[in-house]
Design goal:
By secondary structure, the chain is mostly beta strands. It has one helix and 16 strands. The strands form three sheets. Strands 1-2-3-4-5-6 form a six-stranded antiparallel beta sheet. The chain has a five-stranded antiparallel beta sheet with strand order 7-10-15-12-13, with no helix packed on it. The relative contact order is 0.17.
């Protein structure tokens, strides 16, 4: 039977990281004959690379390398048939696609209805709420901008080409939106999102958290996002044996002072596929 052993994860990668910088997790998987296979997943700016190796003690043999783009996997078919077949057995256990538990994480739902500049939910005839998100701030403004909305969008970074829609939070330490999400106990999750400051707000700060009433499972910490382009943030977190109330993901503007705006898009939280048991 297959079994697995989790190894320590490395730091989160951001947009613009060099290809040599790795992120995610490392895992060892053992076959029914007791041979160890190790794979690691690296974040290479816009796709994941999974490398499957065999051996131990520093003498590893590459079995297969996969590229993951939008959760689709492609195996390197140039490997010898016997090695590729062995790798395929490992891959079959981990290539299932997990569902994103965040709804409207790219802020595209009803985005075209935001037609009154600059995109506030309080500006008629714009929608009065962002679908699936609840305003939990105490001041400031929020709404949707993007290249597909029916108006000028002033709140994005200088280069907003990474996404066509984004949610913005304007205000200093007061603006925030949240969504209740459903997580499973004792499960490891991947989280990824785009974040940026407004092009004219180099000192703005934002924060993303996932927490229930007593435990914080993920915290990006208050971060001075890039104002020139969207940053791609990738990380991982794990849940415990139970939850204390609802689990909520919160997007915040934590800027210390002044008229600052932060933007978020492409928020994805999904369970990490685990190797299945194979006789």
């Amino acid at each position: 039977a297959w079994s697995h052993l989790s190894l320590p994860k490395k730091a989160a990668a951001r947009r613009g990281s060099s290809p040599s910088r790795t992120s995610g997790r490392h895992r060892r998987v053992r076959s029914h004959k007791g041979q160890w296979f190790e794979w690691n997943r690296e974040w290479l700016s816009d796709y994941f690379s999974r490398k499957y190796l065999s051996g131990g003690g520093g003498a590893w043999i590459l079995l297969a390398e996969l590229a993951q783009s939008q959760k689709n996997y492609t195996m390197n078919t140039t490997l010898p048939l016997s090695i590729a077949a062995t790798a395929a057995l490992v891959l079959s256990a981990s290539s299932s696609t997990a569902a994103n538990v965040v709804v409207n994480g790219d802020f595209s739902v009803d985005a075209t209805l935001f037609s009154a500049s600059p995109g506030y939910t309080t500006s008629s005839p714009n929608p009065t709420t962002i679908p699936s998100w609840t305003w939990v701030g105490t001041g400031g403004g929020h709404g949707v901008n993007g290249t597909i909305v029916g108006m000028h969008s002033p709140f994005g970074p200088t280069d907003n080409s990474a996404t066509s829609t984004w949610g913005f939070l304007q205000g200093s330490g007061t603006a925030a939106i949240a969504q209740t999400i459903i997580l499973s106990a004792n499960t490891t999750y991947d989280i990824s999102f785009l974040a940026a400051n407004r092009g004219t707000n180099a000192s703005a700060e934002g924060q993303v958290t996932i927490a229930d009433d007593s435990t914080t499972y993920y915290d990006s910490n208050s971060t001075d996002w890039d104002n020139s382009a969207f940053e791609s943030v990738v990380d991982q977190f794990s849940t415990g044996v139970s939850f204390d109330g609802n689990v909520v993901i919160t997007l915040s503007n934590t800027s210390p002072a002044g008229d600052n705006t932060v933007n978020y898009s492409n928020i994805d939280v999904d369970a990490v596929p685990e190797p299945s048991t194979t006789a």
